[in-house]
Amino acid sequence: xxxxxxxxxxxxxxxxxxxxxxxxxxxxxxxxxxxxxxxxxxxxxxxxxxxxxxxxxxxxxxxxxxxxxxxxxxxxxxxxxxxxxxxxxxxxxxxxxxxxxxxxxxxxxxxxxxxxxxxxxxxxxxxxxxxxxxxxxxxxxxxxxxxxxxxxxxxxxxxxxxxxxxxxxxxxxxxxxxxxxxxxxxxxxxxxxxxxxxxxxxxxxxxxxxxxxxxxxxxxxxxxxxxxxxxxxxxxxxxxxxxxxxxxxxxxxxxxxxxxxxxxxxxxxxxxxxxxxxxxxxxxxxxxxxxxxxxxxxxxxxxxxxxxxxxxxxxxxxxxxxxxxxxxxxxxxxxxxxxxxxxxxxxxxxxxxxxxxxxxxxxxxxxxxxxxxxxxxxxxxxxxxxxxxxxxxxxxxxxxxxxxxxxxx
Length: 409
Hints:
The protein is about 45% helix and about 20% strand. It is of the alpha/beta class.
């Protein structure tokens, strides 16, 4: 990255003038913190003692045998405190907010995992917490909303636009513009103005560093390929970045949704609607129409339907260092069931995209090759979406009975 926050042609800071001093203060404090060994030690200690790192690298022997190709390993970010990789970043930024003397954090969330992680770290550090979330995403991920509220956070539904992550991000930016004196904007993915892409990918790179050590210990070499789902891109950046100088092929898996029609997917690569643009404080590849207006998106997972992508990944893809593929909603549900029934692991729908991409290509490889799939989160939060996708009638009957009993109490 250049000092001005660009990754090739992507990145930068396209923010209102009112936020310039706040952004410059954040950049200065982040640089200072990363040069402070005491701060780094504090972050590492919290990751170990509060979140439970290192997370394991799990060999999927039964699934590997069933697929009949490469040996399949999962990096178990689902075993972090809060059930997702999001905790790595919020620990780092939460401690940075305290170091800067802020008393309040704001966040925006799609799948809700970043919202829960932000609420958790705010409670632990004694900070006020406000989370913006699209009303549509609230419907899809209400269990996470419930936990945010129990942790003391204020959850504000966003009803503008498509009522998803893009719209929640706009509202969080408006809040930050009016409250930056005492408020820290805790962005959960490697997007936004500088230094957020660098900062988030830096705190998340603990994932890839652990994989390097674990792979050499468990199968004696670096992985042949690594797969990660790509929404904004935080978990992908986290596992990819430490491997950029190695021979391991890095593969991002986007949300292919219902198909290639506009509004049916969230692919920012390999589709004619994705092109360079500037929005929401930075430049990257956005899904746009011919007039440059951002297009609607769809994914079965609330965490993968962002209209843009990390400028880091956009640059790496341009330079051929990351290959981007996609998985449809149908492929995702098949991969979810294969992993659950063969290995006893319930993946998040976001992570199931990486599983789908990995299983598809593992079948073409030889048994002496090794792939690692980043399991970015666990699927508890997706219970209602998965039950709906599987048309599980007994579950629907249970819900109706439960609600009837509650109304008659």
